Amino acid sequence: MERVVDRIPFLEKELFLLRLLVRPGDVCVDIGAAGGAHLLVMARGAGSDGRVLGIEPRPGSRRVLQGIVALNGLSRRVTLRQVALSDGPGQVTLRIPIVPTRAHVPGSSTDPTTAAFAHLPHRRIEVPTVALDALLDEEGLDRVDIVKCDVEGAELLALAGAQRVLSTLRPIWIIEADDLHQRRFDRTAQDVLDAVTRHDYGVYRFRRGALEPVVQATPDEDDYVFVPNEREIAVPLRLTA
């Protein structure tokens, strides 16, 4: 199965990783919950004693998520918030493509790849922003075990508002980071890795059923796993040297 996951690009292998990582009673945060696949895996793994906070700024996706949560009887363990994570409170403009794909923040004006998004048919909506540290306080969460973050290039903004989470709560993070999306903010995937590892985290990628240490961002990887250096992973994953 691991070889299949590595070779089929549309299979999100972090779903398989979450099935291994999430334990009963865990507190999980899904940043960019989108269609709900990761949120469902988290909720089922955490069980009735766990809790999942799903964060999704798009109103249409939020409605879909509400239906999924209700249909699966997960309302007691899943909380949904329609906000965008940033370094503090404010507002952000999201571009919602008319043809359903993904939401995009306005691209970098200096990069032709991201500037091209501006010409696609879309509508714009204003969404409130909040820091993850503040949002956890609002939700009464003083512990987090696992965070998944996929916010289409705004990962560094989300991390900027999560300094207490990184320094004190110390969860495992699964973060999407590639140069294409980071160019919307004139940043790179390596900038994302540096923002987490400076908090004494190790960085890995999930390949063939194992977590492999990563020295730097690589073109053939866009999902990285960050583990606090003091933390042991209590699942049947091997850390390869």
Number of strands: 12
Total number of helices:
10
Major β-sheet annotation: 9 strands, mixed
> What overall form do the CA principal axes indicate?
globular
User: What's the helical proportion of residues?
Assistant: 25-40%
Rg from Cα: 17 Å
Q: What value does the average pLDDT take?
A: 86
State the end-to-end distance.
Answer: 22 Å
Topology as a string of helices (H) and strands (E) = HHEHEHEEEHEHEHHEHHEEEE
Quote the beta fraction.
25-35%
Order of strands across the main sheet: 3-2-1-7-8-11-9-10-12
Unreliably modeled segments: 1-11
Q: By helix and strand content, what is the structural category? A: alpha/beta
Describe the structure in your own words:
This protein has 241 residues and is of the alpha/beta class. It has ten helices and twelve strands. It has a nine-stranded mixed β-sheet, with helices on both faces. Strands 4-6-5 form a three-stranded mixed β-sheet. Strand 2, helix 4 and strand 3 form a beta-alpha-beta unit. The relative contact order is 0.14.
List keywords for this structure.
alpha/beta; 31% helix; three-stranded mixed beta sheet; nine-stranded mixed beta sheet; disordered N terminus; 241 residues
Set out the fold topology.
Blueprint: H1 2-7, H2 13-21, E1 27-31, H3 37-46, E2 51-55, H4 59-71, E3 78-81, E4 84-85, E5 90-97, H5 112-115, E6 122-130, H6 132-138, E7 146-149, H7 155-160, H8 163-169, E8 172-176, H9 179-182, H10 189-197, E9 201-207, E10 210-213, E11 223-228, E12 238-239
Helix pairs in contact: 2-3
